[in-house]
């Protein structure tokens, strides 16, 4: 398959997945009968951005932010897609496979972070992407970030992604779970960011169709298991003490994203939209 066709197929999938997830989340808002049921159900607002207007070093492409704020269930959730191309700086190219010899790149993907009103409903992160330099690969994953961890929720989340991984590679789950645990760790806090999930990068087995199928399965699995977990708890009452725990947890989450997250670095180093890149930050947080 021609690389240009692969780029188009990947970008179209991320666009379709964005629409599917936004529809799922808006349905949750409609169905909520919890403590904030008297609010109007939340809706996504979409805002497109053009990379050519992002300042020095930016080149082509852009993306669309889909943000919901102040909903019944979702305090702040972003489901962003982007498709960009250009040239890495010489310094940054050294850290990207296949870019030292030719710094031109193409990247398309979806990135999602959900921060919830209720501390009993887990926050979550998910992203998948396709990147090409002189090489090409897929990456991404999903991880649960509960301020008040629930063993059943955690087990169900992992079981869903294990089933997804097992459909594509016998060693995928163990490899990608371990990678997630190692990656989403806050060294200066000596703690994991959340309850884990899967994380993979530079997936290029030599069978592009198989790698793409796995990446699609990750997106579909997310859109099945996470809404189910939200619906499980969205109508429960919560306490002021639980809310305080949630706000402190969000502080740790923000620290990881600003200090260690490679996606944040990639976006800022390649002239991405700052608002879209920092969409992952919670609307409110506290530090003890």
Question: Which structural class matches the secondary elements?
Answer: alpha+beta
Give the overall form. Answer: globular
Oligomer: single chain
Question: Cα-atom Rg, whole angstroms?
Answer: 19 Å
What are the key terms here?
seven-stranded antiparallel β-sheet; oxygen-dependent coproporphyrinogen oxidase; 8 helices; alpha+beta; 288 residues
What would you note in describing this structure?
The protein is an alpha+beta fold and 288 residues long. It has a single domain (3-280), classed as oxygen-dependent coproporphyrinogen oxidase (3-Layer(aba) Sandwich). 41% of the residues lie in helices and 26% in strands. It is built from 8 helices and 9 strands. It has helices at 3-31, 90-93, 151-166, 172-183, 208-233, 240-259, 262-269, 274-277, and strands spanning 45-50, 60-69, 74-87, 104-116, 123-132, 136-145, 185-186, 191-192, 196-203. A 7-stranded antiparallel sheet has the order 1-2-3-4-5-6-9. A two-stranded antiparallel sheet has the order 7-8. α3 packs antiparallel against α5. The longest helix has 29 residues, at 3-31. It starts with a helix and ends in an 11-residue tail after the last helix.
